[in-house]
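Section 5: illustrative case.
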């Protein structure tokens, strides 16, 4: 049975994580996993974020302008994410999860610095047929190892030079598939020791996550494209630094 203090802490974590996701379109699993790891094992934290992550990602996915077109364009990437996540989910419950998180954090920091310096890359449309499934599988393996969905999916999707709202929507699509795949992977590896209790806690975490996301989305809609770009990369930088430092310490 969780104490009142732990329940309050979980609520505060998901409020903050939802706010970050509302502003930059991502970050809920990263923030939640990093902060919840202070009080519980990574696999338990991952089980708690399943429902908030799934619902907020679906909200983000269906609130955008190009659902059908983006699904068709990136269907092979989504298939790769599903396969990679289910295959790699055992790492999250193993001894190497901390090292994987540190590596992920370092990669995020590097990508964010390059983005802030405007040294990003562009993926030509003719290369998407090859790149999409490879990026999907790689993202799935990273998700299975860390519970975080961003590398290499976010740099790749950002390299497609989508409009701001299309980018937010396709991030929602990628993260929705990742969340569903992670749930399957955790179930297969036995990490959901008490599925009913863990999913009940995940449902309770949903309300503060939705509240935070609503506040963050309201703020995002007032931003210019350039301001959003800077906030997006600064958010990545902060998330990456937090992951790397939390794993190192």
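Designed sequence:
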């Amino acid at each position: 049975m969780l104490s009142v203090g732990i329940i309050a802490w979980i609520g505060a974590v998901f409020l903050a994580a939802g706010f970050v996701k509302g502003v930059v379109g991502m970050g809920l699993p990263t923030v939640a996993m990093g902060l919840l790891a202070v009080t519980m094992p990574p696999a338990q934290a991952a089980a708690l974020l399943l429902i908030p992550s799934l619902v907020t990602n679906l909200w983000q996915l269906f609130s955008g302008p190009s659902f059908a077109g983006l699904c068709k364009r990136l269907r092979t990437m989504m298939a790769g994410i599903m396969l990679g996540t289910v295959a790699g989910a055992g790492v999250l419950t193993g001894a190497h999860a901390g090292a994987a998180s540190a590596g992920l954090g370092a990669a995020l920091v590097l990508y964010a610095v390059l983005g802030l310096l405007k040294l990003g890359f562009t993926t030509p449309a003719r290369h998407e047929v090859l790149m999409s499934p490879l990026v999907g599988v790689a993202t799935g393996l990273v998700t299975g190892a860390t519970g975080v969905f961003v590398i290499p999916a976010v740099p790749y999707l950002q390299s497609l030079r989508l409009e701001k709202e299309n980018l937010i929507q396709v991030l929602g699509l990628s993260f929705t598939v990742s969340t569903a795949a992670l749930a399957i992977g955790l179930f297969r590896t036995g990490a959901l020791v008490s599925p009913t209790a863990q999913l009940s806690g995940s449902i309770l975490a949903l309300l503060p996550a939705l509240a935070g996301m609503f506040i963050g989305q309201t703020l995002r809609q007032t931003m210019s494209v350039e301001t959003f770009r800077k906030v997006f990369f600064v958010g990545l930088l902060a998330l990456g630094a937090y992951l790397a430092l939390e794993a190192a310490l």
